[in-house]
User: What shape does this take?
Amino acid sequence: MSDTNGGQGNGTSPKVVEIQPLKDARTESLYEIRQKVYPRAVSGYFANWRWALVWITQIVFYGMCWLPWNGRQAVLFELATRKFYIFGWVFWPQDVFYLSVLLIICAYSLFLFTAVAGRLWCGYACPQTVYTEIFIWVEKIIEGDRARRMKLDASSASVRKFGIKFAKYAAWVAISLWTGLTFVGYFTPVSELLGNIARFRLSGWETFWVVFYGGFTYLMAGVMREQVCKYMCPYARFQGVMFDPDTLVITYDQLRGEPRGAHRKNAEAGKLGDCVDCGICVQVCPTGIDIRNGLQYECIGCSACIDACDQVMDKVGSPRGLIRYSTENAVQKQWKREDILRHILRPRILIYTAVLCAICVAFVWALATRQPLRMDVIKDRSVLVREVEGGLLENVYVLKVMNMAEKPRALRLSVSGLDGITLDGPTQIEVNPAENKTLTVRVRVPMDTAGKGTHKVYFDVVAVDDANLQLHEKAVFLVR
Assistant: This one.
């Protein structure tokens, strides 16, 4: 910076003043620097439930693709043939209605569970939570408990550290690749997929999806972990809209716990609350938050802090429930369990439950009464109508008959709707299991049967072995 006052009129050179940065100046980051979370192992009632859900979800996911059913895989989505097998059902692209209803059921279930008891899905059954739990379990087996993991990460590089880390990462990669392989096994028969891997004949798309899905499993559960729940998952952002003062959430009882502090024998009675400020509730939290600061969007509702705090309360001789499932109103008004349960059945919950039950009943009824046959009638527009021998008018139709059952069907075909109408073509067809058959038929009527214009006609299909299985499809016959 130049000082020009002394350099004019007296021939002296201007002075240059250098500005030095302040020693206490600091650079603030716009983003929080991640502090690695080392969740402490915990056991208890809710931990048992979490692991039960881990086992159930993974047995279903890893095992379902190995179940045989009618000579095929029980659950198989064949994208090439556009057929989706789910046990005894065969769904086609035309059945997207069922998928839409299923998604609506899932959405309403999520709304209902969240309104009743908060983020139950996140804490117990979300794939992010489940696989993070599995990866942490592997990490604990290989690296040790929380203190040993922290000490290992803080230690300098060594052959021992490299070996332990390599074993952990190798186990994570193996789980991730098997997860990706299982995922692809629902679209390519898993036995065929393993055979292709053994013969090094895996297609490019299969290889891509195995690596892609496995890679994301490794990234989300092994590397990012709580960052997914805190910054990426949208559910954490709009959960506040779905909560109300009567929603059961994980709550710290401040009236009972504060002021917190270590309990000493010589401490005056009544000076401190029940919280001994041990910090174990923070150590067991997979997202690293302190539940004592109140409800936070980072809380995934896993209840690990409840199990940990109950164990501490048992040791110090205080009642359990300092951290517990409760509601905002219950904590403020000191409600008992009966009062809490009575307020759960509020109008919002009753409406969600009624709508969900109605949709579920309709969905089950639609599946139970679903016809295993379907037929599309398409008018051939290349020749709308033509005269043929015998004084007859002829229209041509393309019939697409779909057999959605897994057994062959013999079907009788007929047409009605106009006097003297006849079908020139096959009157009995065979359709293979889970296949569709396309055939061209010609329908004829006498010229004097109907006036000019369009007339309704009906194609009837009846199963030979089951007269109750029939279709009645409308079409248009053109007379000129």
